[in-house]
Amino acid sequence: MRNFNGGGNMKNMMKQVQKLQKDMEAKREEVANQEFEVSSGGGVCTVTINGNKEITKIVLDPEVVDPDDVETLCDLIMAAANEAIKKADDEMENAMGQFTKGLNMPGLF
């Protein structure tokens, strides 16, 4: 009967996992504090969001504010906001990818 003394390896692995978690949280926070600005309609509508996907600013060129065409204005804001969200998602995915590349853990990350 063999006695496996793997406690040291397990302890070392747990320290690495804790460091990884801490590093990932720091990177998440870094991305959350970034701002992502996207324009639509050739620059007449600009939406800025933070990494938490909260809109922080909307800038509209006065020429696009037409009371008879509110639908176009709504479409411009929606397009810019959706693209900004995609940009923030892509940045978060790229940031987390540095920690998860090479790991095969479906559904975990």
Question: Helix- and strand-based class?
Answer: alpha+beta
What percentage of residues falls in helices of 4 or more residues?
40-55%
**Shape designation:** rod-shaped
State the distance separating the first and last CA atoms.
39 Å
Q: What is the CA-based Rg, rounded?
A: 22 Å
Please trace the helix and strand order, writing H or E for each element.
HEEEH
Spans with pLDDT under 50 lasting ≥5 residues? none
What is the C-level CATH assignment of one domain? Answer: Alpha Beta
Into which percentage range does the β-strand content fall? Answer: 15-25%
Protein name: Nucleoid-associated protein C7381_11113
GO cellular component, one term: bacterial nucleoid
Keywords: Coiled coil, Cytoplasm, DNA-binding
Subcellular location: Cytoplasm, Nucleoid
Summarize the structure.
With 109 residues, the chain is of the alpha+beta class. It contains 2 helices and 3 strands.
Textual characterization of the structure:
The structure is a single chain. This protein is of the alpha+beta class and 109 residues long. It has a domain at 33-108: Nucleoid-associated protein YbaB-like domain (Ybab, Chain: A, 2-Layer Sandwich), CATH 3.30.1310.10. Helix content is 52%, strand content 17%. It has a 3-stranded antiparallel β-sheet. The radius of gyration is 22 Å and the shape is rod-shaped. The model has no long low-confidence stretch (mean pLDDT 87). It is found in: Cytoplasm, Nucleoid. InterPro entries: YbaB-like_sf, YbaB/EbfC. It holds the Pfam family YbaB_DNA_bd. GO terms for molecular function: DNA binding.
